[in-house]
Design goal:
122 residues; alpha+beta; Zincin-like; three-stranded mixed β-sheet; globular
């Protein structure tokens, strides 16, 4: 899949976020990178030889922000393009995984931990 098509699928997934949640995401940048770095994987207790990530929330979750949380750079949701494309090969499945990953990372933005997000099916 060409990079432009992948970017379009990510944009569609972000645009599909319901308005009541999207309002809070105004200062969250959605970025696309090819792969998570080995250092990033290790920092998350993942083995770079065995594990990868499809996405990452990088920021301070809403419930963890102090009342004077201003002037910070935007939070980021990073989607790892090559990691997804290596695992999935047809567009409907890639679209589904992008949507699922976006929801998963938004859940972290709202303060849900990994166990809770996974119990919800993301």
């Amino acid at each position: 899949m060409r990079a432009a098509r992948f970017e379009a699928l990510v944009a569609e997934a972000v645009a599909a976020v319901p308005a009541e949640f999207a309002t809070y995401l105004a200062n969250v940048a959605v970025c696309i990178e090819d792969w998570p770095s080995d250092e990033l994987l290790r920092s998350l207790d993942l083995d770079p030889e065995l594990d990868t990530l499809f996405g990452l929330y990088d920021g301070t979750a809403l419930p963890d922000r102090p009342h004077d949380f201003a002037g910070h750079p935007p939070d980021r949701i990073i989607i790892f393009r090559e990691a997804i494309l290596e695992e999935f090969d047809d567009e409907p499945t890639i679209r589904y995984e992008i949507e699922r990953t976006i929801v998963h990372e938004i859940a972290h933005f709202f303060g849900l931990d990994e166990d809770r997000v996974r119990r919800l099916g993301y």
